[in-house]
Amino acid sequence: MDYDKIFSNAIDALHEEGRYRVFIDILRNKGSFPNARCFAGHNGPKPITVWCSNDYLAMGQHPKVIAAMEEALHNVGAGSGGTRNIGGNTHYHVELEAELASLHGKEAALLFTSGYVSNEATLSTLGKILPGCVIFSDELNHASMIAGIRNSGCERQIFRHNDLDHLEELLSQYGPDTPKLIAFESVYSMDGDVAPISAICDLADRYEALTYCDEVHAVGMYGAHGGGITERDEVADRVTIIEGTLGKAFGVMGGYIATTSNITDVIRSYAAGFIFSTSLSPVLAAGVLASVRHLKASSEERSGQQEAAAYLKSVFAAAGLPVMPSETHIVPLMVGDPVKAKKLSDSLLAEYGIYVQPINYPTVPRGTERLRFTPGPMHSRDMMDELTRALVEIWSRLSLKLAA
Predict the structure, then answer these.
(1) CA–CA separation, 33 vs 362, rounded Å?
(2) pLDDT digit string (tens) for 146-171?
(3) 335 near 18, Cβ under 8 Å?
(4) Contact partners, residue 120, CB within 8 Å, separation at least 6
(5) What pLDDT digit, counting tens, does each position of 274-288 carry?
(6) CB atoms within 10 A of CB 142
(7) How far, in Å, CA of 250 to CA of 216, rounded?
(8) How far, in Å, CA of 332 to CA of 393, rounded?
(9) 128 is catalytic
(10) Residues near 380 by Cβ (< 8 Å), separated by ≥ 6?
(11) End-to-end CA distance of the chain
(12) Average pLDDT in the chain
């Protein structure tokens, strides 16, 4: 058996399809995001501007966050010491969970090492704990949600994206004695659209279902205190479980759920992804704690990001670039070809110092490959104008179609 040949063939297939992923070697410049340095293919670092970071509000650069992490590092050291049960439960973790529960108006919260783990561990555990559970999942849910639902071993029903009629049609097939869970996201990060959360909760009430809302692309950025779309739309109290990340708008690392004390205790006690994972470093927990507290009180970063996103959408549209409709901070530009999406990305980086990664299958369906821009409060209008001019030049060179 030629194992190396099998592995090589698998990689060759990605190259042939044009969706082999390249990780760009960069370092961000502390205090001047989105400016960074790129080490890929250069004799020393080259200045670049980052356009695809999920550190949406540049909180990973915020002085309060950095100061809190430095203080924790010198106060308790680098690592947590183990799992939460054995040696990794620190006062930073306890404080952060209380702050996150408060953010969403829930009784309790539970920290995980990442948003992927929080989704996988929670959904897989819920499906195993609820006897005969059926999980109803939006077809565009994140890979971590899909993994958790599959690993639960329970029956699953996929409803068309944001299609309430289809969701109700599926729910109506099960009686009141069947445990049901509706899993969906608030902001879908590749298209930038938003779930009709209130209407989903209406269906959940009607058919006695629990609700699970992934807010990873919304926490910190929507609502008066950064509680996400559920806070903005005043429906947080109606959603059973809110899941979020600490590595995007909050700028650090980790994931969490916020829900009832009872459900939190069940996940804490049964979820293998929680029980057997070393807890977040207290340094990270301290940084997130500072970030959450700041964004609860400050709307400046949220306002700046929304203004930047609106401006970038407008200049893209005015230039005839095929910007996809988006009601959120996500600004996707449709390319529709994996090879040309990669060439666009490579040319922007090499010739203009503009860094944005192509988004290909399986993250998005084949034929819908795109560039996904995440303008933030630190991206100036001059930067956005320069980006637009560069895109138009390379777009023409690659014989890509402009919008009608």
Answers:
(1) 29
(2) 999 999 999 999 999 999 999 999 99
(3) no
(4) 144, 145, 147, 148, 151, 273
(5) 999 999 999 999 999
(6) 22
(7) 10
(8) 18
(9) no
(10) none
(11) 53
(12) 95
φ/ψ region of 210 (left if φ > 0, alpha if ψ in -120 to 50, else beta) reads: beta
In the structure encoding, which two tokens stand for residue 45, read together? 């670092």
Full 3-state SS string of 253-269: CCEEEEECHHHHHHHHH
Choosing from 248, 313, 342, 343, which is the catalytic residue?
A: 248
Q: Both tokens of residue 365?
A: 């369906």
Which pLDDT score, from 0 to 100, does residue 167 have? Answer: 98
State how far the Cα of 272 lies from the Cα of 357, in Å rounded to an integer: 33
Total Cβ atoms within 10 A of residue 294:
22
pLDDT higher than threshold 90 for residue 178: yes
Overall size of the chain counted in residues: 404
Q: What is the largest CA-CA distance in the chain?
A: 66
- Could you tell me what percentage of the chain is helix, strand and coil, using 3-state DSSP and rounding each to the nearest 5? 45, 15, 40
Q: Is the pTM of this model over 0.85?
A: yes
